[in-house]
Each structure stands twice: as structure tokens, then as C-alpha cells.
Specification:
With 569 residues, the protein is mostly helical. The chain has one domain. The chain is built from 19 helices and 4 strands. The strands form 2 sheets. The chain has a two-stranded antiparallel ribbon with strand order 1-2. α1 packs across α9.
């Protein structure tokens, strides 16, 4: 590890902290319907959408009505995206003559982008037409990200309101987030990426002559616009198969930094939205601090593992002073590759600038752990906040058990109903991850996927279902996932990871909103200090450790010790 590497990591952390409060203030104003800098231009557009759809934005919805609207919206989105992929060979903006996407892959892809997972069992430049990329995948990038933010705000309202029957209006939330937040920021990012050298055109692919005299086809297209929302919305689906390791998706060191900042910006700012909503910004900073502790620990281990290099390669006389460079871009090196990997898996993004499958066993274990913990370290836009708030409910409940007192969090008593729904939301991920991974390790169709035997092959399978259920989308990319078995099982895992968490979470929001505010007393546990941060971090690690440590022991941990012993599987 080098001083320069740590300076780059520190710079990233500092900029994220500087962005958190101002962006949080803007998001808070947008979600409350207050006037913003963009209101003179966008308010007429917003009202026009409501009139066309027959929506009253002031109409409050109960948690169940809110959930029902969200589900209907997703069903419609699935049907439209699936049909677009199946019929893309008959539709315009297909200069390369891409064929129709096969049914199982189209279904997997449609579910993937609807759930903000963006798992890709295909190569974008060899499979998708420009129309599919823009009208299909990029549109769902916007809508799935807006949905995640809306759901987080709904839970925040549950904590902030008292004796209320509603938690907001899903349609109004969706419109405001898309119109006032995602679209303006993505326009700015798109212009920036074009300036950095990212293509944004509708032309055909270009043929070039290589230095050896061979002919090479160079893909291009409307890349910058999709790149912007893939990062800002923590979607992660790459226009190109190599994702952000491709020089057209990530051409410079500055573009790399901005992409990492875009992944974290909204998720970090939402913690400030929570603090503002409950009337105490310290509550938001406490949540962000817990996330920060887990994030920095992950960065340290991943960077240490990758900077150390591969001892088996070093034993062959190869210079490993640059660290483990297999699967990495030389221009990013070990520090920025490790940082990007931790960011993208902490934030449920899935974009990559290095191949996680080529990381050292412990280096690759950190991205895996980030997803296994529920991606509550910043997390996907919205999903990270409501995931961490569910863990906060659990942590407060555990604290109440210790002292024999009904626990309270930001003025709301945490009782049996909230704890039951919280546990349903938390435990659905292990069910999908471990259930499907165990099946895949014993049936022939599952064992046909990983190209490696032993612990690494198991890690590839475990990572796939972890990524799907965690709605992340990154992969140990050696796995051959474009089969009927993996397309089907991963699709189900994505739906469980999204909707089986959302429904009980919204139920918690509804029950909390209906409660009275409890006045703080001498017995109230303070939830804005270091003790609460430690308790929250402990709750996340204990639940994750008890659930997933045996699986990790069979995969990356076993591979690490085998590597130390000089054994190759």
C-alpha cells in the first residue's frame, strides 16, 4: 500500500462528506414539495404530468396502497421492457442488426433492470440495439432508481410523522425524484462524460486496422447518457461488456473519480434527509458514521489484499510491487481498483473497473461481504438507507432487551409488529442467497456454470446469487450465467431481494407513521452518538456473520489458506 493510494482514497471520502449536506437539503426540499432553484422551469412540467395521468399529488396513500401502486408500476415496466427486447430486431435504431433477445435472457434482463440489479448475462455491444439501450435499459435505470429513493423517503416519513394514515403518494414521489433530481444531474454528468471522451452518438460501429494489420470493430453509441444514470442511480449495467473498465465508459482518472462520487452521492445525502425529517440532523450523521466505519474497514482490507500481490506469482520471479494486477487496468492500479470494487458493492451499483473474479481471495471477499451484509453501507439509492434503518430498529430492539425497556427510536416506540416486519425483510436475503446457491452446487445445471473447481468455483456461484438477491449486478464474471438455469434462478433471486424487502419495510413505515411521538426522557437511549453507532455496526456484523460465515469459510477463506499453502485447485 502506498501513500499516494491512501491520498486518493481520502480525497474521495472528503468530497462525499462535502456533498452530503447540500445535496441532502435539496432532496429534502424536493420530496417535501417545497420550492427549489429548478421550480420555475419544472413545476409546469410536473403539473402537466399529473393532469395527463389524473393524479392528485396531495392525496396520501396508506402503506398498502403505496406498495400496490409500486407493484403495478413494475408489472407494466416488465411487460414493456420484455417486449422491446424480444422485438428489437424489428424496431428502428438497430444499425448493427442485433437479433431478438432469447426469451429466458430477455426475462432475466427485464427483471434485472426493473429491480435496480442490472445483472447482465450478455455483452451490451454485441446483444442490444441502440433503441433497447436507450428506451429500455436506460429508462428503467431512471425508474428503478427513482423507486428506491421514493421507498426510502416513505420510511423516513414513517419516522417523521405522528398519527398519520399515509406515507406519501408513490406517483408524486416518482415524478419529483425523476424530474427534479435524476434528470438534471444526469444531464450535467452526460455533458461532463462527453467532454472526457465518452461517445454519445447513433452511428454505426467503426472498423479500424490494428498494428498487426488485422481488422477490429470498435463499438460506440449513446454511451454517455446511459453511463450517467447507471452511476447516479446505482444501477451499474454497462453499455459495454467490460463496463467501467472499458476506455469508452471510463476514459480518464477524472472520469473514474466522478463515477465513484456519483455512486455514493445520493445514498449519502439521503442520510441527511432522514436527519432533517426527524428534526435532528445528528441522527442522519450517526447513520452515515455507521456506514462509514464499515466502508473504511472494507477499503483497508481490499486494498491491503490487492496491494500485496499474489505469492504464487511472486514465487515465479515476477515483480509484484504493483500488487495483484490480474484483471485490472494499469491506469487505475491496485488502490483505485480496490476502492471502486468496495464502493460499487457497498452501494448496490454493480459497475466495475476491474474484474472481481481476479481479485485475491480476501480482496474478492470484501465485495462479497458488502452485498451479504445487505448493502447497507450507503447502499443503492434509497435501498441503503431503508436497509440501514431496518438494522437500526433491530439494534434498538436489542438494546431494549438488555435494559428491560420498550425501545424508542427518534421518538417512535419500537414494538413487536415493527420487529416482526423488520426480521422478515432482513431474513429474506439469506433465504434467496443460500437457498439458490446450495441448489446450484449440487445440480448439474448449476455446476456447469463455474469454470473453476474447489473454493473459487463455489465463490463464483455464491457471488452470483448474492449479487442477484442483493440487487447489485456485479459478478465473479468467470461464471457462465446465460443458461436457462441461471437466467431463471437469478431472476427469482432478484425479485425476492427487491420485493420481499420492500413490502415488509413499507408495512413498518405505515405502522410507525400511525404512532404518536414519544417524548424523550432520562431513560431514552441516545441514538446520535458513538455508542449507538457501535451498536448499529455490531448488529449488522453479527447478523451477517451468524448467517454467512460458514459459506465464506467454504469459499474465499478456504481459498486464501490454500493460496498460503501453495495449493492450486
Amino acid at each position: 500500500m502506498t501513500f499516494n493510494g491512501w491520498v486518493q482514497i481520502a480525497l474521495f471520502v472528503a468530497v462525499v462528506l462535502l456533498l452530503t449536506r447540500p445535496l441532502g437539503g435539496y432532496l429534502d426540499n424536493v420530496m417535501a414539495g417545497r420550492r427549489t432553484l429548478l421550480s420555475p422551469v419544472l413545476v409546469p412540467v410536473e403539473r402537466g404530468f399529473y393532469r395527463l395521468a389524473g393524479i392528485d399529488p396531495a392525496e396520501e396513500q396508506s402503506w398498502w396502497v403505496y406498495a400496490r401502486a409500486m407493484i403495478v408500476f413494475h408489472i407494466a415496466g416488465f411487460v414493456l421492457l420484455y417486449l422491446l427486447l424480444r422485438l428489437q430486431d424489428l424496431l428502428p435504431l438497430n444499425p448493427q442488426g442485433m437479433a431478438a433477445v432469447l426469451p429466458d435472457l430477455a426475462g432475466n434482463t427485464a427483471i434485472s433492470f426493473l429491480t435496480n440489479t442490472n445483472w447482465q448475462n450478455y455483452g451490451g455491444e454485441s446483444t442490444m440495439s441502440y433503441l433497447s439501450q436507450m428506451a429500455g435499459l436506460a429508462v428503467q435505470n431512471f425508474l428503478s432508481a427513482a423507486t428506491g429513493i421514493a421507498l426510502a423517503v416513505a420510511l423516513v416519513r414513517g419516522f417523521a410523522r405522528a398519527e398519520a394514515k399515509g406515507i406519501g403518494n408513490f406517483w408524486a414521489d416518482l415524478v419529483r425524484i425523476t424530474l427534479y433530481v435524476l434528470l438534471p444531474l444526469c444531464i450535467l454528468l452526460t455533458v461532463f462524460f462527453v467532454w472526457q471522451g465518452v461517445p454519445q452518438n447513433l452511428g454505426g460501429y467503426v472498423e479500424a486496422t490494428t498494428l498487426e494489420g488485422a481488422r477490429q470493430k470498435i463499438a460506440q453509441g449513446p454511451v454517455a447518457s446511459q453511463l450517467s444514470i447507471k452511476m447516479l442511480g446505482t444501477n451499474g449495467g454497462g453499455f459495454f461488456n467490460a463496463n467501467s473498465a472499458h476506455p469508452y465508459e471510463n476514459p480518464t482518472a477524472l472520469s473514474n473519480l466522478v463515477q465513484m462520487l456519483a455512486i455514493f452521492a445520493i445514498g449519502a445525502a439521503l442520510t441527511n434527509v432522514f436527519g432533517r425529517a426527524v428534526g435532528d440532523e445528528r441522527q442522519g450523521w450517526a447513520i452515515l458514521s455507521a456506514m462509514g466505519v464499515l466502508f473504511l474497514a472494507g477499503v483497508f482490507v481490499a486494498y491491503w489484499a490487492e496491494a500485496g500481490g499474489n505469492p504464487l506469482v511472486a514465487a515465479l520471479g515476477v515483480d509484484t510491487t504493483a500488487g495483484n494486477m490480474e484483471g485490472k487496468e494499469v491506469r487505475f492500479g491496485a488502490p483505485l481498483s480496490a476502492l471502486f470494487a468496495v464502493i460499487t458493492t457497498a452501494a448496490s451499483c454493480g459497475a466495475v473497473n476491474a474484474m472481481h473474479d481476479s481479485f485475491m481471495p480476501l480482496g474478492g471477499m470484501i465485495p462479497l461481504i458488502n452485498i451479504l451484509l445487505g448493502e447497507v453501507v450507503i447502499g443503492g439509492v434509497g435501498a441503503g438507507l431503508y436497509g440501514m434503518l431496518l438494522f437500526a430498529i433491530l439494534a434498538i430492539f436489542l438494546a431494549g432487551l438488555m435494559v428491560g425497556r420498550t425501545p424508542e427510536y427518534v421518538g417512535k416506540k419500537i414494538e413487536a409488529r415493527e420487529v416482526k416486519f423488520t426480521m422478515l425483510a432482513i431474513l429474506c436475503l439469506p433465504l434467496a442467497i443460500l437457498g439458490f446457491a446450495s441448489v446450484a452446487t449440487v445440480v448439474p445445471a448449476g455446476l456447469a456454470g463455474p469454470p473453476n473447481a474447489g473454493p473459487h468455483g463455489f465463490s463464483e456461484i455464491l457471488y452470483a446469487f448474492t449479487s442477484a438477491a442483493g440487487n447489485n449486478g456485479s459478478a465473479f464474471a468467470g461464471l457462465a450465467g446465460n443458461t436457462l438455469f441461471y437466467n431463471a434462478t437469478l431472476a427469482v433471486a432478484m425479485m425476492v431481494g427487491r420485493f420481499a424487502v420492500i413490502i415488509p419495510m413499507l408495512a413498518v413505515a405505515g405502522t410507525l407513521a400511525a404512532k404518536r411521538k414519544a417524548a424523550a426522557s432520562v431513560g431514552t437511549f441516545p441514538t446520535h452518538g458513538a455508542l449507538f453507532v457501535g451498536l448499529l455496526v455490531g448488529a449488522v456484523l453479527i447478523v451477517g456473520g451468524l448467517t454467512f460465515l460458514p459459506a465464506l469459510a467454504l469459499g474465499p477463506i478456504a481459498e486464501h489458506f490454500a493460496l498460503l499453502a501453495g495449493t492450486l485447485f
